[in-house]
Amino acid sequence: MGKRLMSEMTWMEVRDAVDMGEGVILPIGATEQHGPHMPLCTDALLSEKMALDVAKRSNLIVAPTVCYGFRSRPTTGGGQTFPGTTSVRGSTLTAIIMDVVKEFIRTGFRKIVLFNWHFENTNFIYDAAYNVMEDTKQEYPDVKLLIIETPFSKLKPETMEYVFEGQFPGWGIEHASIFETSVMMYVAPNLVNFSKAKDDQAEYYPFYDMLPIPKRITTESGILWKATLASKEKGEVVWKEICENLVNSVNMEFTRWEKEN
Amino acid sequence: MGKRLMSEMTWMEVRDAVDMGEGVILPIGATEQHGPHMPLCTDALLSEKMALDVAKRSNLIVAPTVCYGFRSRPTTGGGQTFPGTTSVRGSTLTAIIMDVVKEFIRTGFRKIVLFNWHFENTNFIYDAAYNVMEDTKQEYPDVKLLIIETPFSKLKPETMEYVFEGQFPGWGIEHASIFETSVMMYVAPNLVNFSKAKDDQAEYYPFYDMLPIPKRITTESGILWKATLASKEKGEVVWKEICENLVNSVNMEFTRWEKEN
Amino acid sequence: MGKRLMSEMTWMEVRDAVDMGEGVILPIGATEQHGPHMPLCTDALLSEKMALDVAKRSNLIVAPTVCYGFRSRPTTGGGQTFPGTTSVRGSTLTAIIMDVVKEFIRTGFRKIVLFNWHFENTNFIYDAAYNVMEDTKQEYPDVKLLIIETPFSKLKPETMEYVFEGQFPGWGIEHASIFETSVMMYVAPNLVNFSKAKDDQAEYYPFYDMLPIPKRITTESGILWKATLASKEKGEVVWKEICENLVNSVNMEFTRWEKEN
Amino acid sequence: MGKRLMSEMTWMEVRDAVDMGEGVILPIGATEQHGPHMPLCTDALLSEKMALDVAKRSNLIVAPTVCYGFRSRPTTGGGQTFPGTTSVRGSTLTAIIMDVVKEFIRTGFRKIVLFNWHFENTNFIYDAAYNVMEDTKQEYPDVKLLIIETPFSKLKPETMEYVFEGQFPGWGIEHASIFETSVMMYVAPNLVNFSKAKDDQAEYYPFYDMLPIPKRITTESGILWKATLASKEKGEVVWKEICENLVNSVNMEFTRWEKEN
Amino acid sequence: MGKRLMSEMTWMEVRDAVDMGEGVILPIGATEQHGPHMPLCTDALLSEKMALDVAKRSNLIVAPTVCYGFRSRPTTGGGQTFPGTTSVRGSTLTAIIMDVVKEFIRTGFRKIVLFNWHFENTNFIYDAAYNVMEDTKQEYPDVKLLIIETPFSKLKPETMEYVFEGQFPGWGIEHASIFETSVMMYVAPNLVNFSKAKDDQAEYYPFYDMLPIPKRITTESGILWKATLASKEKGEVVWKEICENLVNSVNMEFTRWEKEN
Amino acid sequence: MGKRLMSEMTWMEVRDAVDMGEGVILPIGATEQHGPHMPLCTDALLSEKMALDVAKRSNLIVAPTVCYGFRSRPTTGGGQTFPGTTSVRGSTLTAIIMDVVKEFIRTGFRKIVLFNWHFENTNFIYDAAYNVMEDTKQEYPDVKLLIIETPFSKLKPETMEYVFEGQFPGWGIEHASIFETSVMMYVAPNLVNFSKAKDDQAEYYPFYDMLPIPKRITTESGILWKATLASKEKGEVVWKEICENLVNSVNMEFTRWEKEN
């Protein structure tokens, strides 16, 4: 039972995985600016890497990543004015996920995890999941869907202190900044050009949004906060904490669901 | 400049408002369970009432409320297993808002505020707003859209202390609980049956979601936290703080936009 | 069994209504110009008020009103050139109704009435109703849908004589005129500014339609016929006749359906 | 200027027609039961034949007929329980018309007539027409659309008397009955099997609709009223009156529009 | 078993055909330029005529033809720059076919053939067919769909030699040229103006496509190859070979399917 | 000008590429069974690798691959009965491509190549491309789209002879067989388990399609023809020929387009 990436498996290997009772996890990311020091695939890559790490410890197969996400917003991703940011409409995102999850079900999977690493995808994923359940519940009443729209809700206080050094600005603004840069340095160091990392800040970050996007609520660099405080070591700490937490949750939930049936 | 509710105005009064440079605010809510003590219209009503209070101080007309929202989720609204909760698909919500905003633009409004009071509507509203801007920017390049998907991001520390008495559980879970009950007691006391308010809690509130919805992550009552700590006085304090904040934001943003053009 | 407005009920009260075998009625209206003397909400308000009057005598709960309707047409509503008229595409209207009716069914309602007061909504409502039946008939074979796209087909001859005084121009053109003004004076007198009522008329009212809309087939005021002949007394007569008729129909149909099953 | 049917023309002939300033008319019908004596194509055929007769006298080309219409309704077409009736969703009908009209515009037509002979298509056609105008007005500001959703609104009193012999039941119910049978006997006698014509009637014809369709509001034969009173002579009279009326309207409207520009 | 065209049958005749176990065939074509010598309906007409010839020998009813097809492409149909070519979006084509096939199923047909004569419709038809099967398989598990997106894959070598005289350019380019012109001369000679037939050729025919369409990959006439080599006799030969082949396939497949059940 | 993969570039690098006049190529593939010896990502991987090889010699950036394609068909991909095959509806594929191409345009790209390696995606891609051009031509009149739905139309005769050894069965059936296996052995040898390659064949391969899918028209292994004749050397020959051909086409077309403007 070596392979975990569905893309690299043959159909027979997938069939065998289904027969063994394995589940499937769908990484969902984005193609979005992440400052001058990180690649557009940051969200897609982090989603896929974490899904893989979780999969290894949760009896899951990792499906090909949904790499185009919903439109970037100024106060959480810089917004749609950056070249390179390549987004889809909400209805498109919902359609992809619906179709793919229905195919998982046809293939035989009954434990399905949707794993997202891009704030703006929130609710579209849930919509897709709910629609699929409505459409399939009569024919496949035993499907279980775990919808993870944010990879975590909070970190341990000591982790927060270690990572942010007292300068935590809120998760929304933490785009291409300390947290994400650290994590990328840990899992994909060759894709980070740390010499270009900088600290940046919009004039202010409103709790609302505006169109057309005024310059004052986003930054020139695409970094929304401090990136220079990042380090590979910090990345490792949070990655492992998040992963551990996810593995526990996935295993616990499917176990409980099984017992309940 | 008496009337504020577009529904009660004649077309000539709306035309005159446009000619005077007034804007329009669209309240967006939901029809969703709010425990045994509050009505299904809670989100729609709060959205409309707040929009009206803001409108009076920001030169805005209040459009008819979008009273059906996106699907309720267990850890923020109890979820779609409650009878009475009456939700729409995400694509439907997006469609309504798109169409209505385009009509505002045709009518002549150039300052448009989308005001939401239902967490689950997030991103669908932004999707609608973005789509409209794409579709209309050539013909109407001077439209400004303010998209307020959450009525506030935080309250003053002293307000938090006063309202929650040290027991703040996070905003998601604060459904039909201290905050919302207090606010309803202030703005619509006749719709609150406080004698039925109770404290409740799910076994746990995960940061992810599950379908089909397991009982362990929602409550029997639909109250997700402590409702008994609510009071009209608390409601008044938070209502006024939120309103004040919104009025300042709306006025400030449109003023700055105008200056920039 | 006091409350009739679903919006003001708690989820438990709705559940109890379902358990008692009650049905639900969905008022569908529009936000459309109704001359210089009546508000944009006229169709939405009349739909809701009538639904409520019917509900009280037919064991129905009144759901929140669909207040944005399909595009206004020149010869029946003045058309889409009036500011303030705020309409949605047909597909949007269909989507809202489909979603909401499916939620009624999930909630447990089996007697569902769709009640419309806006000519232009015709057929979109039926499309929605038909789609829902197709989608749900396997899981919920016992749902009954009553689709009332026009509140009545004709009035008694003596009522016609009394109301129109020999000047009945056809129902299409009767927009914001004698009939509607009278009814509004009866059910919502505070929203009618009768001093602004006037008689108006397009150059002609063709049986077809045109785009872009030529001025010659609509009026400047938005009143399509004689509004000055309206009176509260007339409104009361027709309101009661329509209501009586609807109550009889609703009760008769559900009774017969029940007997047939 | 011989050919009138676009389907039989070459692309060069269409191009020449456009260059001569001719317009285009799109017949819209249905595939719907019309009793035991008339074919399913009745609405499509009548729509096409009338469009052709009008086209000959109005400088129009006749486009291929939209032969699948919106769902049949019990009190105007027998309803969707009849085998053979082959209908489309409203959104499908709207989509076809939108696409086709946009192609007319790309081809160069500026005078476009939508001509319908199937009550249930109402409003979907207008929706399509309106959408097209919204989408194209910037690029093609000179397009004129005439939307004829019903072929006529009324006939001359003497015609009514002659055709119905005092037994006119209302136009909705006049399905596969005196009027339609007469017209078919005139324009397509070989498709009418008059020996199977009969008089029929539902228990009653409500002004509302019901799903699932109860037998009591439709007929067994699909004829909704008296078909035996039909005759070819009656058909000729009404056909010519309707045609004359349409020709006058089409010519008058395009002439006035031209003058106004 | 006289009539074959569903459009000319009454609903009772269709019902009887269903009761006799007959199937239905849906011709799908296009409204597309076919050079200066052939009409826009060429694909629709050939589709319908062939369907009829097949139907007579396969126990099938011929449904009304889908006469608007997907967008013409330069190297297979001349492309969307020709006036007269009147196409629909892919989603529209899929919607029509889905709706119509569902109605066939409701009517009672269990053997359904989709027969296409327009290369560009490929895959949209399959999408529609697949969607219908997904939507209906629970309620109607015994439906069989034969999807014929190209009328044949190859002709006999001797036929190829006879028809093309050694100048076969590939099927894509064979638009409005030898093959199609010959066939039209055989089945609809009155619609072919052979005196206008000519030989034509683009600068080159790439295996890819381009937008906007450059003149170099299409022709001025709309004929993509040699039309002058066509003859009625050639048309008869290929028509009969194609028909024979189709009849054998249809009969063989439904027979085998029946045996397998 | 080092990086070619957009996913690995920063937004600033993409902006610079645009400023240098570079174009973008979007690989489109599928997640589809490719026999017991090749992975599900075969089409996605080949599409991406070839796009990259072309990009290096054509001044293009390679966008993230669309890795879910339209539904597999029995005679070209084995069909939708294989577990692991994970497909989307046609409308979903069209939506993704539309959205992504519009973002390319917003980012500033004017030379856009859509490159597909999955037969079933045909026409959906063209539909997307055409829709985008319609939607954007007013705002961005200088966009050029090259739509490559098949990577080649034919190979040199000597290549055909070398690769197929006289056993070429037609391109459709060449799924997971000599050609594709050879190419995969050349570009991704570690993903091919050649020891599991075998020769296989359906009872027959009809030129039409059937639903539900009968076993007789597909194979058990998913290989549709002879895979054992594949070799890395053959793969290299065809890969280089295809690549050379594509590079020439892309460079030639954009050069000519530029000259024409």
What does the oligomeric state look like here?
homohexamer
- CATH topology value of chain A: Rossmann fold
The CATH superfamily of chain A turns out to be: Creatininase
Q: Which structural class should the secondary elements of chain A be placed in?
A: alpha/beta
Largest interface: A-F, 53 and 53 residues
Count of structural domains of chain A: 1
Overall geometry of chain A comes to: globular
Q: What is the β-strand count of chain A?
A: 5
Query: Count of helical segments of chain A?
Result: 8
Largest sheet of chain A: 4 strands, parallel
The largest sheet of chain A has its strands arranged as: 2-1-3-4
Helix percentage of chain A = 40-55%
Task: Calculate the terminal CA-CA distance of chain A, rounded to whole Å.
Answer: 27 Å
The sequence of SSEs of chain A as H and E is HEHEHHEHEHHEH
**If you compute it from the alpha carbons, what radius of gyration of chain A comes out, rounded to the nearest whole angstrom?**
19 Å
Mean pLDDT of chain A: 96
Beta-strand content estimate of chain A: 5-15%
**Can you identify the CATH class of chain A?**
Alpha Beta
